[in-house]
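Hey, can you fold this one?
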Amino acid sequence: MFNFKLKSILTCALPALGLMACADNSPADMVTAETVDKKPNVVIFYVDDLGYGDLSSYGATQVNTPNVDALAQEGIRYTDAHSSAATCTPSRYSMLTGQYAFRREAAILPGDAPLIIDHTKPTLPKMFKRAGYKTAVVGKWHLGLGDGFVDWNKPVKPGPIELGFDYSFLIPATGDRVPTVYLENHDVVGLDPNDPIEVSYEKRIGERPVGTERPDLLKMQADLQHSRTIVNGISRIGWMKGGKSAEWKDEDFPFVFTDKAKQFIRENKEQPFMLFFPFNDIHVPRAPHDMFVGKTSMGRRGDAIVQMDWMTGQIVQELKAQGLYENTLIIFSSDNGPVLDDGYADGAVEMIGDHDPAAGFRGGKYSAYEAGTRVPMIVTYPNGLKNPGESDALISQIDIYRSMAELIGLDLPADEAFDSRNILPAFLDANAKGRDYMLEESFTLSIREGNWKYIAPFTGDTPDWLANKTVETGISDTAELYDLSTDWQEQNNVIEQNPEIAKRLADKITEIVNKK
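Sure. Predicted structure:
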């Protein structure tokens, strides 16, 4: 039986296998002026920590998401779509490289981590650029920046621009980590050179108050991990000194990010473009703007979902206003499953009511069970969908890379995005088939084959902070096997009754891990 000894997707111990080399441009890939205007635009909405049951189009009743629901009504709504990992950095890494995160030891990163994607190798935005596209990323990054120590007072690179994005406007890591500043292309926005930024994740620096000493300054209390430097009434992970003029205000995120995305759309409407829009919502700290406060009975988390829906609607409305919507393929999904208490006392647990963010699936963010990666996913493309409706195709976000290459007419070499599969028919037809099998990453590895779900045994360590979270990790020192056709909530481990199936799936994981 395959005994998986990866420490975790968060603290991984497998050696990095690296990314395979590929030329950024080849004559066969280039497109002519006559064909450029026929190619569809692509917009990827990537929500943070949104669960399968967090949208009204997926059954939620305590929150209303009319803008996302409109996409579901017009497009394909998937019932078995998955992020490639149960945490954020790994799933983003896989989407942008077409490779599983364990191959690069991709983990949840501190705010000052170096860029985890090799900028000399192929990426999703570079692939679009080869086909004549303009590319942009607007929102939360959390894939590292620079090549070691980052001096935030100078141009920060390598980063998104070196990965193939023509334009980048982002928060460097997450909303709960310093530095709490916007980065536009290579530069911190609004920085006063007389008040330079310093960041530390090892020791306290500067004179800013911290959450453990000044709880009276906080909008919401936090656990010890999130109780360091206070910015905008919210304590964060890590310490920050200086940069006062460049600080963001969390409540402004919906307007700042949507305005930047809309500006990119307007400026590039005459040519094909790819916009990657990774939300900060509904990740902690949840600090929705007053415009959305009180829109649900679930407090900050529910109101952040409403805020996310509004932002989606604003960008779709801009596409329509510019006459681009009909020829734009939109992918809407989430980077992992849901979590309620993730470090801040924001009422998410106490005010949940009858709402079930996981829609009955077991687990959530960080978990090997289905709710760790089974997420809402919607695709719209008025000019290209063959059959809208509900799809039960098995989908992994890692396949966006090769499927989009097929959409825009690029033939990729075998060593580019080599874990990704071309399942474009499933992106365009609700009746089409998706994957035969699918790997899921968490603290261990799991694999889906049809309705069979195998979770590899785990013998590594989990991070200390996980002990403070009420999360079913799904890890065990013995393997687990579930038949989702009769046990979709993963309650009955049937590995003893089906040893041949378990061995076949364990061997498949070994084959994937050893792929070069």
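The CA atoms of residues 155 and 186 lie 5 Å apart. Let me know if you want another pass with a different chain boundary.
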